[in-house]
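Quick start: what a row looks like.
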Amino acid sequence: MSDRVGGRSRANFWIGLVFGGIVAAALLFSVYYVPRKGITFGNEAISFTVVLEQAHGLHAGSPVYVSGIEAGEVSAVEIRALDRIGYRVLATVEVFDGERFGPMLKTDSTYQVASSGLLGEVTLAIAPGGSGLAVANQLVNGVAPTDFGRIVDDLGYIAKRLADFMDAREPGDPNVRRALVDLQTTIRNLRDFSGNLPR
């Protein structure tokens, strides 16, 4: 009799465990997958293609942000020849809630490859606005990501020019010279640090 009761309680335990696993999976699906994939009931997605000279790490599945709000994903990336400009990277973008985001996205809005998060996930960031055509089913020009290393190089060049100017104007002032050397050192360290960041 006790064996029968023990077997029934073990069966109930495993049934409860499986049921709990299914509920947990459904909860994770509703929290992560549904908003990310834009599974909405009644709202149609819009699709368009961003033209880039290079992919810069953008790939199918990369998230798309509109003014910092995750609104879709890159559904495909391919290289194709376009008339009069040659080979380009074409990133097909799907914005899930077309009713919400469609009216603000125009062909002359800004479409820029960017990095986000600590791991440097490559994304497509859209700054809405403009007076162009509606973006649905159109080709739009994309912008390359900001080259942080180039900005640092430019700052280094400016600091060197300032140091040369100050040496020529006041060669005996050690405080100005020291401040500019410290600025150059800081910029060099910043460049080394940025070189180790994930791309």
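That is the whole record. The two ends are 66 Å apart (CA to CA). Residues 68 and 125 are 7 Å apart (CA to CA).
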